[in-house]
Design goal:
115 residues, alpha/beta, 8 strands, single chain, 4-stranded mixed β-sheet, globular
């Protein structure tokens, strides 16, 4: 089987804000002009998975999640906080956890994992 992930589809309430945040967070760019309710982000250089942003009106939790991996978790968490992420309050980390749970500007959770 040669099945690979093409894209993560991320439900958002504000498409423009999500494009700005995730482009800066991941060093990505728009693949093409966004549609009114959908945009695709790809790496500025090199290869990598694309991130699709889908406008949603639902107030229900959007069932999505990303794990981001880095060699320098402390600096990346600081950078992400500086561009609009916030720390997840009240998260119960297991002993020796290698990840930090953050929220994007819309409150969607994601993890930053130490490689």
């Amino acid at each position: 089987m040669d099945l690979k992930i093409l894209s993560i589809v991320w439900g958002v309430k504000n498409l423009e804000r999500a494009i700005i945040f995730w482009s800066k967070a991941l060093n990505y760019r728009l693949k093409s002009d966004p549609e009114p309710d959908f945009a695709i982000l790809i790496p500025i250089s090199g290869s990598g998975m694309q991130l699709s942003l889908k406008l949603t009106a639902s107030e229900e939790p959007r069932r999505h999640h990303m794990d981001l991996i880095t060699e320098n978790q402390k600096d990346e968490v600081k950078r992400l906080l500086n561009i609009g992420a916030t720390k997840m309050e009240g998260w119960n980390y297991e002993q020796d956890a290698d990840y930090v749970v953050l929220l994007d500007p819309e409150g969607n959770s994601f993890c930053v994992v130490q490689a």
